[in-house]
Amino acid sequence: ITRMRLVSLTMLEDAVDALVEDDDELAQDVIERDDDVDRLWYMVSRVFRTLLRNPSAAAEIGFPRDTCFDFQSSARQLERIADHATKIARLALEVDAIPESAAEPLRRLLSEASQVPETAMDALLTDDPDEASELASEARRGIEEVDATVREVDQQIYEFEAQKAQALGLVVDSLSRTADYGGNIAESALQKAAPRP
Length: 197
Known about the structure:
By secondary structure, the protein is mostly helical. Helix content is 88%, strand content 0%.
């Protein structure tokens, strides 16, 4: 899961770089890395399925079954982030250089959006329930910032010619969804941190 986090969020950053810098080679590299994330996702799914079939396996790996569920559902969110990075990379291959005025707002949106799953993953992986709750709440607040930036960027790209505006609109949507997926991870972290009955 930690590896999925690193690869998927790096893919997202590289995909936006490829778009902004009109770097087809980097875009192609991002698309190829999606296979790595898919392989990791299948591995997590296979382990989780084993735990469902054989409850004693959870004791062997050292996590309660509900924690394994939280890890598996968070891994799914990371896999979706990688899919959106791939979508942005494919758009980068299709469109020519984007207007310079769009570069800075997109990078700012990328930074805000990727911070949500980063913080949420920190919350999920800490053993301190108080720290987990604090980080998860911080991640959820980050979604509000992302939503405000999305509205700003949408207004800016509305001015561009139709094809570029449409492509950039899809990029903005993918970055917005990245924050939402981070919010889902934060929810899992909050549930994991909740006192056990």
